[in-house]
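How it folds:
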Amino acid sequence: MKRVIILTLSLISIVIIISIITCPTDDDYFEWLSDKYNISCTSTPKEMICKENTNEIEWNSRYIKSAGIYQKVEDNYSSSNTIYEMKVIGLFGIFIDYSTISIKN
């Protein structure tokens, strides 16, 4: 019984350590955003300038939650006729995407 408890705690500790080491950063998120959606952003002291391919899009808001073992990012962008709600969870070096892109009427 004692051996099972030690083994279980060891496995949990290993998973936590691996998730801390592989937790994605903001740079990883922007690289993923560029690769997946062709959206690239540059930050200035006053604003964030974003483009989808060559078209400029407006950055509206951002929410980041980073708990050390995962990162949750919610970005909102818009263009003349499109609304981008980028929502991802970064865990173990990958991003799980549950974003929505909708067309304005």
Summary: The two ends are 63 Å apart (CA to CA). The chain has a mean pLDDT of 88. The longest strand covers residues 55-66. The longest helix spans residues 2-21.
